[in-house]
Amino acid sequence: MGQLSLCMIVRDEERNLPGCLDSAAGAMDEIVIVDTGSADRTAEIAGRYTDRIFTFNWIDDFAAARNFSYSKATKDFIMWLDADDIITPENYDKLLRLKPFLTGDVDYVLAQYRTHYNDDGSASMIFPKVRISRRAMDLRWYGAVHENLEIRGKGLSVDLYVDHKHKDPRESHERDMRILKKEIDSGRTDYHIYLFYGLARYYEGHWDEAERYFNMLIDAGQTKAFDPVEMFVALHCIYKARGDFARAKAVLVDNEGLMSDKSEYYCCLGLFYLECEDDPGTACRLYEKALTCRGTFLKADILGQRDPDYYYHIPYGLLGKAYVRLREPETALTYFERALAYKKTDEVERLIYKLKNLIELKQTVDYV
């Protein structure tokens, strides 16, 4: 059984650090804390859990800070967490059961990361991330922001979840945008940076700039280097909003092979057929296909994202709406009830209520 070093980079985390370390410390054989410039009690709190506390001069580069933290580890395997990450008791037990399998035959471990949450507490974004690596492999972090750990050797994918509890997103967004722009202005060609900058500009409403960076990735043939579904859906929405329906359709249809196991892709394309081509029949077929997707990733080393609602609740709800358009209320009701079984929403409950009244009225009229 390999011993495990926990490596963390922190700054001004006095509120979050105790919860994180309380949830994970017992499973660790070593804890390495790297402080990047705290002005609060972070270092004092870290000292309750470990004496291996180091400082790192912050240079607007998360990968550099993480690589420094990894250089201080001494155990066979290294695990990383952010200060606002939590390991639930269930996943703590899974981590303990995983440790006997950390041997020389394993170079890295892929676990699941839950990073965004709905109002009801359910996860709205889950994606795989390299969580543990064998120290002897010397795997390196890359990316000044939204950083990733490189993948080499033999991997192990496990049913282990880490929950990321976001702080104020405005603060982190401003910091991330500053670093992304700094990297771009430096002239370094980093398609990882271009992707995240384009997505950020899209969500800020700067569509022309987002489109430019997305097309730089496409023209350079870099779309196989990451899970591109979010980028292509964003491009689709840009073209559709401009009324350029031919390009909106093509950007999805022409790239199906890159997103063939993503429910988000088929739901988005189905909605296009329903709204822009008035073709509910094709929309239904695409929504049915969405329900066959399981959100796995085309390769184990491609990091992507998955919204669980898109694999159950959303396609059932879209099928219900399409069958309403097809004037088949009984079938629509069936799909809305399936959507409600996965997630209760006021909208679906209202639609079910209306459809039941409509069906009852229709049956009464038919009987009379």
Report what the structure shows.
It is built from 14 helices and 10 strands. Strands 3-2-1-4-7-6-10-5 form an 8-stranded mixed sheet, sandwiched between helices. A two-stranded antiparallel ribbon has the order 8-9. Helix 9 packs antiparallel against helix 10 (263-276) and helix 10 packs antiparallel against helix 11. It is α/β, with parallel strands linked by helices. The relative contact order is 0.08. Strand 1 (4-10), helix 1 and strand 2 (30-35) form a beta-alpha-beta unit. It has helices at 17-24, 42-46, 62-71, 89-98, 169-185, 191-203, 207-219, 229-241, 245-253, 263-276, 280-290, 313-325, 329-342, 346-367; strands at residues 4-10, 30-35, 53-55, 77-80, 85-86, 108-117, 123-134, 141-142, 148-149, 155-164. The longest helix is centred in the C-terminal third of the chain and has 22 residues, at 346-367. It folds into 3 domains: 4-167, Spore Coat Polysaccharide Biosynthesis Protein SpsA, Chain A (Alpha-Beta Complex), CATH 3.90.550.10; 189-311, Serine Threonine Protein Phosphatase 5, Tetratricopeptide repeat (Alpha Horseshoe), CATH 1.25.40; 322-367. Helix content is 47%, strand content 16%.
Which descriptors would you attach to this protein?
16% strand; Spore Coat Polysaccharide Biosynthesis Protein SpsA, Chain A; eight-stranded mixed beta sheet; 368 residues; alpha/beta; Serine Threonine Protein Phosphatase 5, Tetratricopeptide repeat; globular; 10 strands
